[in-house]
Amino acid sequence: MPRAPVRIFPSADGIGEHVAARLLSRIERTRVAGAHFLLGCPTGRTPRPVYAALARQLAERPQDIGHLILVMMDEYLVTDGGGGFEYASAAESWSCHHFARVEMVDRLNAGLAPEQGVREESVWFPDPRDSAAYDARIADAGGIDFFILASGASDGHVAFNPPGSGRETRTRVIQLSEETRRDNLTTFPAFGTLAAVPSHGISVGIDTIASAKESVMIVCGSGKRLTLYRMRRAKRYEPDWPATVIHECASGEILADTDADEPLDAH
Question: 202, 172 in Cβ contact below 8 A?
């Protein structure tokens, strides 16, 4: 498996415009072919410029995306009172369900006719009661066509996969590391305190990600210099830095902005 190449852009918005145009072209090709397009999606700060650019480009040049399926990477979990887990409330601004509805579906559909937009049933989340079913559902639908990936700044986590995650891991319930929870507190200040960040989540695994047909790892800002350095140094997946999964993807690419591309000791 060749190492994923690195491309540098002037800004996060530039990455967003590039990825959005690339995606819309692929989405249209699958529509013409009569197929669904499965898009693997993270939430948080990193993908926001991509989703914003998708919404802008769709508003300027509407196209039918009714066949688009959003395969969400993860969700926070809370105890269900019976010894198991359930999704955190979708009413919480930090929940992935809330993000998918407000920052993705509502914005993408805003400039489209109702029959052209993403359908409610086309937003998928893994079920904590049967996590293995998610990988089976993805496989039955033909696999993820394109995965947008983002890396944790402090420990290189991808989705909720912490350092130490095996290459073979698939969708599962995960106890979140303190580093992941601190990163998520930065992403969603509405949590208020670290104690308010849930201790568990459900997440696609490393193998789930690596099985995608095409992937991009987006790295933006000075806080991501370490993860860009680690990915550049790696030749294959390194369990102590899960973001290196990009090197396992059949067609993977790292897209970074100039701030992330600065040397680690830059001030």
Answer: yes
